[in-house]
Amino acid sequence: MSNEHNMRRVTAIRNGTVIDHIPHGQAMRVLEMLNINKATSVPVSMVMNVPSKKMGTKDIIKVEDRELTQSELNRLALVAPEAQVAIIRAYSVAEKLTIELGDEVTNVVRCTFSNCITTNPREPLAHRLKVVSREPMALRCHYCGRPQDLEELIRNLL
Ligand SMILES: [Zn+2]
After folding, report:
1. Helix (H, G, I), strand (E, B), or coil: what is residue 143?
2. How far, in Å, is the centroid of ligand 1 from the Cα of 49?
3. Is the pTM of this model over 0.90?
4. Euclidean distance between CA atoms 51 and 42, whole angstroms
């Protein structure tokens, strides 16, 4: 058995989800956005700084025994909009999913302005951010209209 073959056996998963083409350095953020943490019971592996023809270097995440849903994946638009996702069943790709960034990001993160109406507990509003630009990504709060700082926004995960 060649080394390359051994390697593939180690990295392949039987069932689960593979998230590929994550911008290099964003893997931890992706895990955070998916609520994958030390309380998660399924095996999760993360590979960082993998050489990529398209991206220079990229990160890859493999989540075993769990198929991520489209709505979970759409959360990733904020940190890895170009990521490619494969659902694996019995060691082969059963489905390919892409991350969709719609016109609005709803109930993923909260507006970063503390005096926004959405921070008032007596106003149980949906957290809605409008996508005003994709490249580079820019979001504005649906309610207060203020532009959101992406770095700050990601810390406001719901
Ligand atoms: Zn707001």
Report:
1. coil
2. 36
3. no
4. 27
CA of 115 to the centre of ligand 1 (A): 8
Closest CA to 82 of 55, 48, 56: 55
Separation of 156 CA from ligand 1 center, angstroms?
12
What is the structure's pLDDT at 8? 53
Distance CA 70, CA 91 (A): 21
Ligand 1 centre and the CA of 144: distance in Å?
4
Of the CATH numbers 3.40.50.1100, 3.30.70.140, 3.40.50.920, 3.60.60.20, which one belongs to the domain with range 3-98?
A: 3.30.70.140
Ligand 1: centre distance to CA 32 (Å)? 22
SS3 state of residue 51: strand
Instruction: Record the tokens describing residue 84, joined without a space.
Output: 């490619």
Is it the case that residue 57 has pLDDT exceeding 50?
Answer: yes
